[in-house]
Amino acid sequence: MNNFLLSLFILAELTGFSVPQIIEDDLYLVPTYSADNEYSFGMGKIKSDLPTIKEATPPRPKGLNAGPEDIQAKAAVVMDAKTKEVLWQKNQTASLPIASMTKLMTVLVFAENNPGWDAKHKMTSGENSLIGAKLQIDSDQELNMLDLLRVTLIGSANNTAMALSHSIGMNDEQFKKAMNKKAEQLGLQNSHFVEPTGLDENNKSSPQDMAIILGEVISHKELKEAMAMKEHKMLIPPDNHEHTVKSTVKIMLDEEVNVIGGKTGFTYEAGYCLASIAKNAQGNEIITVVMGLPDEVSRDAESKELIQWAFDNYEWKK
Question: What is the predicted pLDDT for the residue at 190?
Answer without folding.
Answer: 98
